[in-house]
User: What shape does this take?
Amino acid sequence: MAATLVPLLSVIFSLFIQNSNALSANYYLQTCPQAESIITKAVRRAIINDKTAPAALLRMHFHDCFVTGCDGSVLLDSKGKKKAEKDGPPNISLHAYYVIDNAKRDLEKMCPGVVSCADILAVAARDAVALSGGPTWDVPKGRKDGRVSRANDSLQLPFPTFNISQLQQSFSQRGLSLDDLVALSGGHTLGFSHCSSFQNRIHKFSNVSDVDPSMNPSFAASLRQICPMHNKVKNAGANLDFSPTAFDNTYYKLLLKGKSLFSSDQALVATSRTKALVAKFATYEKDFFHAFAKSMIKMSSINGAGTEIRFNCRSLN
Ligand SMILES: *[C@@H]1O[C@H](CO)[C@@H](O)[C@H](O)[C@H]1NC(C)=O
Ligand SMILES: *[C@@H]1O[C@H](CO)[C@@H](O)[C@H](O)[C@H]1NC(C)=O
Ligand SMILES: *[C@@H]1O[C@H](CO)[C@@H](O)[C@H](O)[C@H]1NC(C)=O
Ligand SMILES: *[C@@H]1O[C@H](CO)[C@@H](O)[C@H](O)[C@H]1NC(C)=O
Assistant: This one.
């Protein structure tokens, strides 16, 4: 009985996933064939003057998908007292909304009311990676834009202080595996963090050690200089790896040396299974690129409750 039931259930389950989430790489082939090239142009233009745009776009897409699915909810502006997701607790790390606005404006001229903001963000995140020297992939499209964005919901994002079991739970709730976790964490090859996200590891870590013992001591000392206990410099912080605008595997090499910023990064070497994958990605960049592209497609297919194609990515129709 059980032997026949299990395969049957898994067939039903996979049908459900496909039906509820019918994305396709050719989605705009008839309705807006230039869609992707218009988005890519907007990302390219942004990068010329703003080296931080790729990290911001990648982060924004991750944030969008992890909170209520990939439905463009992170792009909506707050309205009066109703604070939107983008103004929720980790808001200081999000910017570069202008890139999405520019792409949307150009798309509305060419094919009005056709391309969703959630799709623009998914394509822009892919371009951000590819234009920084990382892998490229076909982005499945056909997402709809959601009508709900609550500041509160940003608390559903994994915290930088999470340990491996908390990370695993957060990812598995969204259909993502431990392997996806290790690959997607590689997105931290791009970008910068404010002191607040790793302050807990370099001051008063525990009653026996001021600094997280899993952190390389000289690395910790350099961070303590940048981020003193009573930090007064408003935007003080550190790059996530030594090459913050190049999409490469440096992040994994640093992890193996205890030179990562977040507890949630260092947690990836806390279990043998995830550590083996970190070591593989640190050695073979190609394997990382392949896994990253695969996991991005999976993450960017997390179903949202979208119902419309917004005309302006910042406001509901
Ligand atoms: C960021 O979030 C905090 C806490 O929710 C809020 O007080 C602050 O006004 C927000 N900052 C911006 C720039 O929206
Ligand atoms: C989220 O918002 C709801 C109501 O809008 C409120 O009851 C709840 O306390 C909030 N939760 C957090 C963690 O802020
Ligand atoms: C992770 O943190 C949670 C909550 O603090 C705790 O219950 C759990 O035991 C921790 N897991 C590991 C592997 O440290
Ligand atoms: C340090 O904290 C642990 C619990 O976190 C406690 O068991 C231990 O007694 C404390 N040691 C000292 C020296 O305070």
Remarks:
- Residues 152, 155 surround 2-acetamido-2-deoxy-beta-D-glucopyranose (ligand 2) (CB under 6 Å).
- The first strand starts at residue 192 and ends at 194.
- Strands lie at 192-194, 237-239.
- The first helix runs from residue 2 to 20.
